[in-house]
Amino acid sequence: MPFVSVTRLRLRALRFVPGFFLHAMRANAQVRRAAGFQGGALLPDRRRTFWTMTVWDSPEDMRGYILSGSHKAAMPKLLNWCDEASLVHWDQPDARLPTWQEADQRMRQTGRTSKVRYPSPDHAAMAFEPPRPATGVPIRPAR
Questions:
Q1: d(CA 100, CA 32)
Q2: What residues contact 138, with CB distance under 8 A and at least 6 apart?
Q3: pTM of the shown model
Q4: Per-residue pLDDT reduced to its tens digit, 9-36
Q5: What is d(CA 80, CA 73) in angstroms, rounded to the nearest whole number?
């Protein structure tokens, strides 16, 4: 059964954007070659907010990706760069990419926050604006 992972990150200042983009490009190249990756999308949103959505063969495949390579190298930096971070995962019967509206709903209903060192006042409550899906970009496996 396909496994979906969605993250939402908000950078706390413009000065973190260049470093974030560098790590995001490297992680994007890594995910395209990752075992079990079926597809995904990136959504650069307003106010320095970035959403990712990926579909995997299994939770183990997703964990293998996040705990290695470029993604693993970026994770510690996000503690300082972000003032809001959250994630949600779920299983679904098919490999279709969910809509951003569905990702937003699931984030609010069953998602959880990630640790950040400088949380915004809205971080713990996950009080954020819905994503603007028109700016999304697909991620395809490199196969």
A1: 20
A2: 39, 40, 41, 97
A3: 0.95
A4: 999 999 999 999 999 999 999 999 999 9
A5: 14
Range of the domain at 35: 3-139
| Strand order through the sheet with 112-113 | 112-113, 82-91, 3-11, 49-56, 37-45, 137-139
- Overall domain count for the chain: 1
User: Both tokens of residue 66?
Assistant: 């996040």
List beta partners, residue 137: 42
Left (φ > 0), alpha (ψ -120 to 50) or beta: where does 6 sit? Answer: beta
Which residue type does 63 have? R
SS3 62: helix
DSSP calls for 8-47? EEEESSGGGHHHHHHHHHHHHHHHHHSTTEEEEEEEEETT
**CATH no. for residue 98?**
3.30.70.100
